[in-house]
Write a structure and sequence with these properties.
homodimer; Arc Repressor Mutant, subunit A; Dna Ligase, domain 1; three-stranded mixed sheet; DNA-binding
DNA sequence: ACCCTTATTGTGAATTACTCAGAATAAGTG
DNA sequence: CACTTATTCTGAGTAATTCACAATAAGGGT
């Protein structure tokens, strides 16, 4: 198993096996829906539930949006997916989990990019919370950078003319 | 004008005059609805549209939720309010604008606090965007710290048991 | 002080993103 | 292969927000 050629290009089958193992280790059954969701998100990072549904329906036409939501929520809970909620956009999902990375979003076209923390992990986790702060135990720090991507800067688009989700997934 | 005593405690009338001036300078009419929204947000930072509506109705019972939304959106566009969108919560609004400050949210009770950037303004604005990034012109960097506040840590609440908006506004 | 223009608010319906309850299906186990 | 139960599907429901259009009122002109 997993020797020889594969039907599809990319990192398809390799990742698929890892996903199956991870699902098993979380006491989850391996279903084509779950694998399809993982594959769709992997193929198109930062995509919305709607985009994921559309992508999956190409090969699994009977899948419903509700199932997508259930699967996405569950996989996120397991840590196999990460959910991000950009302003003025439905939630988006990505397969890059576990590392502490942030996001940059173009306020003009909605493009989203991964951004590694500038100085490792620590700096964003030690703000001056001492000053009258009651929230002491910081677990995660999410940074959302907003600006304009070079494409939009070139086209001189006005900010926020296009809604983020009218544009396809990023990367 | 603005001398002597004021009817209400706090920074009521002073702020009100500033608001009127700001509204005028933005070619907006000074309406009691707008002033009421500004006052409600000022009084209770990080509150939701629903909470703002409830607060305002105490003295302006005929106001509608839709108007609140319109006013909030407009004042946010003008920069007189700032909108924050915490995960698993409706949008929240605050009067502290213009400065680059961030937020810490308690994942247990939903309490939100302002957090000043640890090293002034610059550090969060210069991530390593060079590495293959197309989003070059960063305008703002929002940092969202998530953790547990001391109260929740003491009560040993499980994270996310309570939805953020089941709790009153913070501060 | 009053009128008139038009921004603003109110009314009512619609939309988006998502969730829930229960029936049908299929993954994995013996 | 059968059986148990997680998973998915069906269909309805909800929360947050937006839209279109009618009613109202702010502020400038006279």
């Amino acid at each position: 198993m997993m020797t020889g050629t594969r039907t599809e290009g990319g990192s398809g089958a390799t990742a698929e096996h890892e996903w199956e193992q991870q699902l098993h280790s979380h006491d989850r059954r391996v279903t084509k829906q779950r694998l399809a969701v993982l594959a769709a998100v992997a193929r198109s990072q930062h995509s919305t539930a709607e985009a994921i549904t559309a992508a999956i329906r190409a090969e699994l036409p009977s899948i419903t949006v509700q199932s997508i939501y259930v699967v996405l929520a569950d996989l996120t809970r397991l840590g196999m997916l990460r959910r991000i909620e950009p302003p003025n956009s439905p939630a988006r999902y990505e397969t890059r989990t576990g590392d502490n990375h942030h996001h940059a979003i173009c306020t003009s076209c909605g493009r989203i990019e991964d951004v590694d923390c500038a100085v490792g992990h620590a700096p964003c986790l030690t703000p001056e919370l001492d000053a009258g702060a009651t929230i002491g135990h910081i677990i995660i720090a999410d940074v959302l950078y907003q600006g304009t991507c070079s494409a939009c800067a070139a086209t001189a688009n006005e900010p926020l003319t296009v809604k983020p989700d009218e544009v396809g997934p990023s990367h």
